[in-house]
Amino acid sequence: MEYTEKVMDHFANPRNVGTIENASGVGTVGNAQCGDIMKVYLKIEDNIVEDAKFKTFGCGAAVATSSMATELIIGKTIDEALKITNKTVMDALGGLPPVKVHCSCLAEEALHAALWDYAEKHGITIDGLKPPEEVEH
Amino acid sequence: MNTQKPFLYFDNAATTPLHPKALDAMLPYFTERYGNPSGIYSIGRDAKKAINQAREQVATAIGANPTEIFFTGSGTEANNWAIKGVLEASREKGSHIITTQIEHHAVIYVCEELEKQAKSGGKPVEVTYLPVDSQGFVSADDLAAAIRPDTVLISIMWANNEIGTIQPIAKFAEIAHKNGVIFHTDAVQAVGHIPVSVQDSPINLLTISGHKFGAPKGVGALYIRKGTKIAALLNGGAQERNRRAGTENVASIVGMGAALEISMTEQESEFVRLTEMRDNLIDRIKTAIPKVTLNGATGKNRLPNNVNFSFDYIEGESILLLLDMNNCCASSGSACSSASLEPSHVIMALGADHEQAHSSIRFSLGRLSTYEEIDALMAILPKFIEQLRAMSPLAE
Known about the structure:
The complex is a heterodimer.
Chain A: H1 5-12, E1 25-31, E2 36-45, E3 48-57, H2 60-73, H3 78-82, H4 86-92, H5 101-121
Antiparallel strand pairs in A: 1-2, 2-3
Helix pairs in contact in A: 1-2, 2-5, 4-5
Chain B: E1 8-9, H1 20-26, H2 42-62, E2 69-72, H3 75-89, E3 96-100, H4 105-119, E4 126-130, H5 140-146, E5 151-155, H6 169-178, E6 182-186, E7 205-209, E8 220-224, H7 239-242, H8 250-288, E9 292-294, E10 306-311, H9 316-325, E11 328-329, H10 345-349, H11 354-358, E12 360-364, H12 371-390
Parallel strand pairs in B: 1-11, 3-4, 3-5, 5-6, 6-7
Antiparallel strand pairs in B: 2-8, 7-8, 9-10, 10-12
Helix pairs in contact in B: 1-8, 2-8, 3-4, 8-12, 9-12
């Protein structure tokens, strides 16, 4: 199994690691059983994702996809943010080994979960956004 | 000897470098001494003689008769042969196998495959997977209680590849023997490293893998005690006394004999040296890094070359990647599973939770390991653990 240079770069020098105090939305996905847990924090102002941070327990691909997903979402409008899919993240990383594709799905889910949390907290509806699945710990 | 290593190597339980003397012994059999051991002419007889010398070297190492050593292509092949061969030869008695939850995949997956085939209309088989305690020990009482009239094979590994726990194999073999059940042990991690003998206990079958003790990859052996009922593995020529047909891998077999003989000469001193080094590494990791758990047994019940820790809040692969970027080789659980998403079945069997099982790393020492290597590892490991914990949501 080999990771691309981009994946290794985002794993070794992850962007946006950390938390956001009073975040507009926080999403946690994955579980320890599958070996990956991602927590994404978003700061949203005037419909724009001003900042994003993450914390991830997982393999190299889990860290790299979290890093890339947060990098991709910063500066986007909510509508644009919703269009970030696992494929967007994967393509931006130059691909993932087949057994690690699920990490990119998790990254997409983490962004959506954080957006859902934002929508719930602010009493708004985001078209096309589904509630995140229950997180087991 | 080469002391300038381009990388730090802590994966000797996965494989070991070929011993230079084993290589010297092998080289002629790639070139001028290329005869087929089945040939009646001189270079054929020469090759046959070389194989039989290796057979004696292997037999001597475990206290067996040379006629009881059968060369195979790997430890995995020997395990497959032991399980399938005994089951096939014991059909009239029954088809119940007893093994453990912490066996190598080369035993567990063989049993699971047989169960799968039985479910889809194949020959019947039932398998009992014995649990282990928190240090990885199988209970003799559990074993005795699991034996049934239709039990045909008990397979328990001598020493575990992930956590290094050494089982009281002689005791288990006695229990099997008293109940008239064939006893197999996967001794791949033990042979060459700790005293292993088939003289002290009624072991019927014992698996050996060459590359774990300085022999080349691609050669192993199955010890089959005289009188043990087992079907042939491969049919064809008369090689390996009609039980494992196929022209012998002469050079590798020669290398295996030579490497094992050297390992036996060095075993006592290496045992002492590596045990001290192992305990040094264990102490230093415990001292330098908070929230770690040593997986497996301690003291003389642990392989002298095995260190296995779970690092709370971190997934194993991420540690391995950071180590690899700094030219340091270690592994999670077993080398075979580093691409799978399943947590270690061995760590899970100890009663650990998924987080702990996903966070285990094995450092295994060997003939070329030095304290300088341990110093170099300890210069980077604590900061990598800290770095990864800083980004873990579990550490909050």
